[in-house]
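Hi Y.,

Following your request, here is the sequence exactly as I used it, all 142 residues.
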Amino acid sequence: MSQCITCLYAAIVGFCFAFVYDIVKSVRKSIVCDFLTVFVQDICVSLLLTLFTFLLLIARCNGEMRTYVFIFELIGFTIFRLIFSRYFIKISVKLIRLILKLKSYYSAKILLLSSLIESLSAKLSNFFKKIIKKCLIKTKNS
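Below is the corresponding structure, written out as tokens. Let me know if you'd prefer a different format.
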């Protein structure tokens, strides 16, 4: 029974691996990346997924490598890629591009607003400095 539960966990982990891989792939399709960036991303993602497989092996198999764990991770990965990946990537690429467009649109508005606030605060600061100077001069004269 324990091996069946471990197989189920391994399939779920493989499913999650495919999900993470699709997120990385969606970001790559939305943002142009050079070869070195893709290489570093692949290495980081591979190390992260390897760490999770290692943690699964420690938690369920007392750290012993079991072939069926890797096989069921591959099965979970393949199921996600065959059934959900195509739709997930299309939706997430559109969502990422929308977020980037909104960010660029609103960042220009925010920059304009921040410059207005900065100029207003500078004018208010000068105004209050003049009032304080006048008050100090009047108190010295009194």
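The radius of gyration is 28 Å.

Thanks again,
Q.
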